Automatic annotation (TrEMBL):
<comment type="function">
    <text>The glycine cleavage system catalyzes the degradation of glycine. The P protein binds the alpha-amino group of glycine through its pyridoxal phosphate cofactor; CO(2) is released and the remaining methylamine moiety is then transferred to the lipoamide cofactor of the H protein.</text>
</comment>
<dbReference type="InterPro" id="IPR015424">
    <property type="entry name" value="PyrdxlP-dep_Trfase"/>
</dbReference>
<feature type="modified residue" description="N6-(pyridoxal phosphate)lysine">
    <location>
        <position position="711"/>
    </location>
</feature>
<dbReference type="Pfam" id="PF21478">
    <property type="entry name" value="GcvP2_C"/>
</dbReference>
<comment type="similarity">
    <text>Belongs to the GcvP family.</text>
</comment>
<dbReference type="InterPro" id="IPR020581">
    <property type="entry name" value="GDC_P"/>
</dbReference>
<dbReference type="InterPro" id="IPR015422">
    <property type="entry name" value="PyrdxlP-dep_Trfase_small"/>
</dbReference>
<protein>
    <recommendedName>
        <fullName>Glycine dehydrogenase (decarboxylating)</fullName>
        <ecNumber>1.4.4.2</ecNumber>
    </recommendedName>
</protein>
<comment type="subunit">
    <text>The glycine cleavage system is composed of four proteins: P, T, L and H.</text>
</comment>
<feature type="domain" description="Glycine cleavage system P-protein N-terminal">
    <location>
        <begin position="20"/>
        <end position="447"/>
    </location>
</feature>
<feature type="domain" description="Glycine cleavage system P-protein N-terminal">
    <location>
        <begin position="453"/>
        <end position="739"/>
    </location>
</feature>
<keyword id="KW-0663">Pyridoxal phosphate</keyword>
<dbReference type="InterPro" id="IPR015421">
    <property type="entry name" value="PyrdxlP-dep_Trfase_major"/>
</dbReference>
<dbReference type="InterPro" id="IPR003437">
    <property type="entry name" value="GcvP"/>
</dbReference>
<dbReference type="Pfam" id="PF02347">
    <property type="entry name" value="GDC-P"/>
</dbReference>
<dbReference type="InterPro" id="IPR049315">
    <property type="entry name" value="GDC-P_N"/>
</dbReference>
<dbReference type="InterPro" id="IPR049316">
    <property type="entry name" value="GDC-P_C"/>
</dbReference>
Length: 965
């Protein structure tokens, strides 16, 4: 019998995107549910998620649409943005991303789906790229120790302030800031200073340090070089005087300018900060961009954030790793002086590869051309009667036009150019890599000056405007990496070679607990490099960003609906900064209500380390609450701590589901107890992937959360950044969300608290990713994704439980979206450590789960909803095979000091050498279940971390080091 012909309506229905995002199909889900002991996803949800917190009814979100329709919507939003030529400056500049870098790094999942390089043996490509970034920064700033990037320039300056306070000989309360610093930097520094008792003094330092400030006591000074106004001044007199006073000097410097100007280190600076945005990273309406921070060698061990160092592997070969990990918040917790726990890796890689692509001569040529355009622009303005305020500059001019500034800016806008309206009498103009002769002429016309048709003749008669005493004379970027890749062929192969040395989601599963390494769909990523989103300056007039602002508004509303809160700020550009913003809102709320004594922050002992660090930065005192044997917050200890600090209690910070991967049943009661004592409840949103569509923190008792768009909402980790960490609050905290001095619309009415990021909407350039994810999934798709994430974790737990104890479970013996397995009994019995298991997983073709968090000697596994059953089974099979290998060690078949686990990972190079091990080459590199044709080969053997910390090398070592090896 012939099957009935499907109707046109049926044929027009596309496969819903959720079916592609969620790995296990209906048949596989049935198998997984049977393994877990349930008949349906709803039955599992009813058993796992406490009834008291479950969401009533579906989320009120727009109906899901397919990829083509969502991309068309994004095109429509993009078309509502007006991208004019950016000559606003203020730390953001037009730049050309070399297409070979755009296609092969920014748009390449081998780079953007990688995780933070905690497993360095399979992160050698991006670690080498980050070491190159550090070399660029160290060479150009003249300071030998540079980190692997910070969140943006303003955050880097705030971190420099904290570092200065820690190490300065002068112990006064004042951090002195030059008035010519970028206004957004000054604002972020003020935000970060006030809760910690630092007094920020902004003064014109062109005439030196004011004596009244010196008498008050200065621990640090911040200078801008060149200044926000464009002025290039010699900072040496201020530096010398600051040092006499025992203060630490930070110089915020433009990297491109430093190819021509004397570096800050040579001028006496102790710290240099800034942004690498103009090294090929799109404007993106403010981010993400890689900030930088470099220091004198004496301060290396005080450096905040990430630092890549050179160590050696088990064969004695040079190898890269993250160095000096004692700075981590997990170790220092409330004693940490920074809550920065990540970097802007993908953007730092782009900036580094931009320097590799151009080399020192290419960068200097771009800088010289930029400066020449500024010099000729100034010459034409002066010849036409306009007053250029400063006599020395690099790329930025301040032009005085009494009472005409607004008219000039408007005329330039009509010509397709954005200038900066400084005040009623002054206009700022910044040249950059994208400036052309036509745009110089258009600016002259906007000022109403004749200019010249013969720019070459003007060039002949116009001198440079860089001070001769500040011209750079030393060589920089001398390492061969900056000279070997001039052709596109060479550059392409170099990028491929680096990518091949890494492990990312495009190779296989990354089952990291608490980090949610899920699918970052290509359709979600597509829009971020569209010029209408990528090319917009963050301080462009708001009416030029209508599409962006609509996308931002819709994303805020949808995140509020999902979480049950009333207001959302997208400004924080990392989860740590979302934490800080949320705690600052709580602090401001208590103070506004006449309760400034409420400064105690209760934090469970199992919490993520940034919680405690953020609390201290928000001016709070951390009191630790015990965690019970089952992983739950110890309710008795919590109530005792609440009673002991009832009058001082500001907030409880708690992660839900718990850091141990469990749905705690008493969360609503915990929230009620804190509220009864007058405190607020902060629910860390790191584990929101277990709640979306099932429960809403803002409705089960929480007052504030930060979210991780780079976890739950599909922005990729990018090898350790970018991230977005929005803060979501109930209505009573909404007036205290972050504001921004240059864009009032970015904050609440009344201005809110100060900004926590340089740009008004933080890393706006990647918000289209999460917007697209929500639009593609819809309410039902999001709910199903959460249910499958919980199912996958319980499936893995059930499969592994006979082989490794599952440390924590909740109601019915179930876990949430991740499970913690305990290796400690095996370590005691056999000597095989958690690190041995993690490194052996590399031989099986996997990135290890989270090691030793929240409990030392354990693995936290989060499979996510995106991995299909075949990949889940491949992982479980590998873990079971590793357990069998551990048993062979325990039985004495393999010695404790020489077996496949302690020697893991194994490289291809080992196979060609002498083999003296008691196991075979095949057992080493092709264990059970590993197909030879798809084998991932780690580029190095196990790395000696202690050696790298003792012998710190954080810039590209001489090639001779490798040749000798």
């Amino acid at each position: 019998m012939t099957a009935p012909r499907p109707s046109l309506s049926a044929l027009e229905q596309h496969t819903p995107f959720a079916a592609r995002h969620i790995g296990p199909g209906p048949g596989d889900r049935a198998k997984m549910l049977a393994q877990a002991g349930f008949g349906s996803l709803d039955e599992l949800t009813a058993a796992a998620v406490p009834e008291a917190i479950r969401t009533d009814g579906p989320l009120r979100l727009p109906e899901a649409r397919d990829e083509a329709a969502v991309l068309a919507e994004l095109r429509s939003l993009a078309a509502r943005n007006t991208v004019l030529h950016p000559m606003i400056g203020l730390g953001y500049h037009g730049t050309f991303t070399p297409p070979v870098i755009q296609r092969n790094v920014l748009e390449n999942p081998a780079w953007y789906t990688a995780y933070t390089p905690y497993q360095p043996e399979i992160s050698q490509g991006r670690l080498e790229a980050l070491l190159t970034f550090q070399t660029v920064v160290a060479d150009l700033t003249g300071l030998p120790t540079a980190g692997a990037s910070l969140l943006d320039e303003a955050t880097a300056a705030a971190e420099a302030m904290a570092l200065s306070r820690r190490v300065a000989k002068g112990r006064g309360p004042v951090f002195l800031v030059d008035a010519d610093c970028l206004p957004q930097t000054v604002a972020v520094v003020r935000t970060r200073a006030e809760p910690t008792g630092v007094e920020v003094r902004v003064a014109d330092l062109s005439g030196g340090i004011p004596e009244d400030a010196a008498e008050r006591g200065i621990f640090g000074v911040l200078l801008q070089y060149p200044g926000a106004s464009g002025a290039v001044r010699d900072p040496r007199p201020v530096v010398e005087r600051a040092h006499e006073l025992g203060a630490v000097v930070t110089v915020a410097a433009d990297l491109l300018a430093l190819t021509l100007l004397t570096p800050p280190g040579e001028l006496g600076a102790d710290i240099a900060v800034g942004t690498s945005q103009r090294f090929g990273v799109p404007l993106g309406f403010g981010g993400p961009h890689a900030g930088y921070l470099s220091v004198r060698a004496a301060y290396a061990r005080n450096l905040p954030g990430r630092l890549v160092g050179v160590s050696r592997d088990a064969a004695g070969r040079p190898a890269y790793r993250l160095a000096l990990q004692t700075r981590e918040q997990h170790i220092r917790r409330e004693k940490a002086t920074s809550n920065i726990c990540t970097a802007q890796v993908l953007l730092a890689v782009i900036a580094a590869m931009y320097a590799v692509y151009h080399g020192p001569s290419g960068l200097a040529a771009i800088a010289r051309r930029t400066h020449r355009y500024a010099a000729l622009l100034a010459a034409g303005l002066r010849e036409g009667g306009a007053e250029v305020v400063h006599g020395a500059w690099f790329d930025t001019l301040t032009v005085r036009v009494p009472a005409r500034a607004a008219a000039v800016v408007a005329a330039a806008r009509e010509a397709g150019i954005n200038l900066r309206l400084t005040d009623a009498d002054h206009v700022g103009i910044a040249c950059d890599e994208t400036t052309t002769r036509d745009r110089i002429a258009a600016v002259w016309r906007a000022f109403g000056v004749p200019g010249t048709d013969d720019l070459d003749a003007l060039d002949v008669r116009t001198p440079d405007a860089l001070p001769p005493a500040l011209l750079r004379e030393d060589a920089y970027l001398t390492h061969p990496v900056f000279h070997e890749h001039r052709s596109e062929t060479a550059m392409l192969r170099y990028l491929r070679r680096l990518a091949d040395r890494d492990y990312a989601l495009d190779r296989g599963m990354i089952p990291l607990g608490s980090c949610t390494m899920k699918l970052n769909a290509t359709a979600e990523m597509a829009a971020i490099t569209w010029p209408e989103f990528a090319g917009l300056h963050p301080f462009a007039p708001a009416d030029q960003a209508a599409g962006y602002l609509e996308l931002i508004r819709e994303l805020e509303q949808r995140l509020a609906e999902i979480t049950g809160y009333d207001a959302v700020s997208l400004q924080p550009n990392a989860g740590s900064q979302g934490e800080l913003a949320g705690l600052l809102a709580v602090r401001a709320y208590h103070r506004a209500n006449g309760r400034p004594q409420r400064t105690v922050c209760l934090i469970p002992s199992s919490a993520h380390g940034t919680n405690a660090a953020s609390a201290v930065m928000a001016g709070m005192r951390v009191v630790v609450v015990a965690t019970g044997a089952n992983g739950d917050v110890d309710a008795e200890d919590l109530r005792a701590k609440i009673a002991a600090h009832a009058d001082e209690l500001a907030v409880l910070m708690v992660t839900y589901p718990s850091t141990h991967g469990v749905f705690e049943e008493d969360i609503a009661g915990i929230c009620a107890a804190v509220h009864e004592a007058g405190g607020q409840v902060y629910v860390d949103g790191a584990n929101l992937n277990a709640l979306v569509g099932l429960a809403r923190p803002g409705r089960f008792g929480a007052d504030v959360s930060h979210l991780n768009l780079h976890k739950t909402f599909c922005i990729p980790h990018g090898g350790g950044g970018p991230g977005v960490g929005p803060v979501a609050v109930r209505a009573h905290l909404a007036p205290y969300l972050p504001g921004h001095p240059l864009q009032p619309a970015a904050g609440p009415e009344g201005g809110g608290t100060g900004p926590v990021a340089a740009a008004p909407w933080g890393s706006a350039g990647i918000l289209p990713i999460s917007w697209a994810y929500l639009r593609l999934m819809g309410a039902e798709g999001l709910r199903t994704a959460t249910q499958v994430a919980v199912l996958a974790a319980n499936y893995v737990a059930r499969r592994l439980e006979p082989h490794y104890p599952v440390l924590y479970t909740g109601p019915g013996g179930l876990v949430a979206h991740e499970c913690v397995i305990d290796v400690r009994p095996l370590t005691r019995a056999t000597g095989v450590t958690i690190e041995d298991v993690a490194k052996r997983l590399i031989d099986y073709g996997f990135h290890a789960p989270t090691m030793s968090f929240p409990v030392a000697g354990t693995l936290m596994i989060e499979p996510t909803e995106s991995e299909d059953l075949a990949e889940l089974d491949r992982f479980c099979d590998a873990m079971i095979a590793i357990r069998a290998e551990i048993d062979r060690v325990g039985a004495g078949e393999w010695p404790r000091e020489d077996n496949p686990l302690v020697n893991a990972p194994h490289t291809a190079a080992q196979l060609t050498g002498e083999w003296t091990h008691p196991y075979s080459r095949r057992e080493a590199v092709h264990p059970a279940g590993v197909a030879p044709e798809s084998k991932y080969w780690p580029p190095v053997r196990r790395i000696d971390g202690a050696y790298g910390d003792r012998n710190l090398v954080c810039s590209c070592p001489p090639v001779a080091d490798y040749a000798a090896d």
